[in-house]
Amino acid sequence: MDNRLIYTEALFSNVLKREGLNWLQAGENEDYLSNVFVRISPKEIEAFKKAADELTDLGVKAAKHIAKNEWWEDAGIPENAIDIVAYSLKHEIELHLLNRFDFAGGIDGVPIKLLEFNADTCSLMPESTIIQVEHYIQEQYKLSDPPFNELVNSMAEHFEKIIRLNPKKDKTLLVSTLEHEEDLINVEVIMKAAKKAGFAEVQLMPLDKIVFAPDDGIFIELSEENYRRYDFFYKFIPWEFIAYEEPELMDILTNIVTKDLCVVLNPAWTMLLQSKAIAKFMYDLQPDNPYLLKTTFDAADFPDNRYVSKPVFGRMGENIAYHDGDTEPEYETEGDYEDFDKVYQEIARFNIDRKDHRYQPSIFYTHEPCGIAIRRQDDLIIDDDAEFVGHTVARQ
User: Fold this and answer.
1) Predicted structure pTM score
2) What is the pLDDT of residue 297?
3) CB atoms < 10 A from the CB of 372, how many?
């Protein structure tokens, strides 16, 4: 792995300030942006694309398999989400705007293996579309070709398709987050793509300022008794959060979506892909698939005690335990997701440098593979303490 690394100067701080991304280099994030680029070959990029294409098809197949057999509980879907997920899977497959695959391997002949989908509110967008591009421009005299980065253009193309699929709806998009800084900088990329796609209005609004009317749609209040309706709504808020923490809103959104009062993105069926349980159902369908790790609902399926356990719904690498031959984990992370059911997954082989950094490549996917982001960490589990690493596509 070390012969793939190119050491550069750190990205100039004035670039971050200009782009409004100071947060990515402040406080606990001080060491988040690495000054290292990874050299990746065009052949390796094509292999990542192929894996993403095939796994997208298999993920949809597994989601339909779950719905057909009504294995909602096994898939982690709470009762109050079943109706909207089932409806969405039947009517909204093509409305899935954006997904991010997290992989292990893929470099220097290490096999590509799927770790998980990030199918609902995936992050790393400003790092991929702005940070590594600006860093490449700054250091291109040391690098070869630019990063693989078509995310904004590809997202804009898919937004255009979503608009075409809904010809009777106004091209008005309302975007909302839970106001976390990371969420806000990610939705700026989504909004940029939406404007490029031709939305007449793109508005960012905190969740608590939005009016959700079960029989009329989604609005913001402009003044007393004066409301603005939006026909498209992008919620950078996880479906599982809404289902568990905001059940009343879940019921309202179910009504809005099933009555076709508003297009809600990412659509609710992506909750099936977001669930770590999807890997188990994909493995059941194609146990010989070269991109899949053995994944089950029972640790006893790994008699050698070599596996990783993950909560069905979890984020930022929290509540993951790494077992390397013992019933007690060799390493585990804390977090807020310990109450969810777990899946148990075969240990993946990572690309590792001589400083014991594990490299995790991620592929963004709209209607096509459209960008790559890489993180690394010197722990057994890559979590919120990972570094972001740029990449360059080497033609030589």
Assistant:
1) 0.95
2) 97
3) 29
